């Protein structure tokens, strides 16, 4: 299964590479953190089989969960099995935030809405 480091993702963002970034943290975790990675689209991990076909196939997709373990790895594996270039973010949002990478505040409405 493919993965991407925090440094690599930051480099991709700085280079303005085209990719899809999916935040697959559970809604309760998103609300507790009250922040997200800029450019991320929220997707409910419980509904992966509902939204999986909506993920663009013409670019890499990076998924992150709270800590980069079961949720993001499972979703990345599912997307990879569908033929997408899918990767999970090592250490997840906690690692991203802990490394001092950019985040943005999450409004209560955004925290519970699926963003396109």
Provide a quick synopsis of the model.
This protein has helices at 6-14, 27-33, 48-51, 70-81, 92-98, 108-112, and strands at 3-4, 20-23, 35-36, 41-42, 61-64, 86-89, 104-105. It is α/β, with parallel strands linked by helices and 116 residues long.
Can you tell me about this structure?
The chain is of the alpha/beta class and 116 residues long. Helix content is 38%, strand content 17%. A five-stranded parallel sheet has the order 1-6-5-2-4.
Give the overall average pLDDT.
91
What is the 3D shape? Answer: globular
Query: Which residues sit in consecutive blocks of at least 5 with pLDDT less than 50?
Result: 111-116
Provide the helix percentage: 25-40%
Strand arrangement, largest sheet?
Answer: 1-6-5-2-4
Output the keywords:
116 residues, alpha/beta, 5-stranded parallel beta sheet, two-stranded antiparallel sheet, 6 helices, 7 strands, 17% strand, disordered C terminus
What is the secondary structure topology, with strand pairs?
Layout: E1 3-4, H1 6-14, E2 20-23, H2 27-33, E3 35-36, E4 41-42, H3 48-51, E5 61-64, H4 70-81, E6 86-89, H5 92-98, E7 104-105, H6 108-112
Parallel strand pairs: 1-6, 2-4, 2-5, 5-6
Antiparallel strand pairs: 3-7
């Amino acid at each position: 299964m493919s993965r991407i480091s925090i440094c690599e993702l930051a480099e991709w963002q700085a280079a303005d590479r085209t990719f899809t970034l999916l935040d697959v943290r559970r809604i309760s975790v998103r609300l507790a953190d009250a922040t997200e990675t800029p450019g991320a689209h929220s997707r409910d991990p419980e509904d992966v089989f509902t939204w999986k076909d909506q993920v663009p196939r013409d670019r890499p997709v990076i998924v992150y969960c709270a800590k980069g373990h079961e949720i993001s790895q499972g979703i990345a594996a599912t997307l990879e099995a569908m033929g997408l270039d899918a990767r999970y973010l090592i250490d997840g949002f906690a690692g991203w935030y802990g490394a001092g990478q950019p985040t943005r505040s999450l409004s209560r409405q955004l925290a519970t809405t699926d963003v396109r």
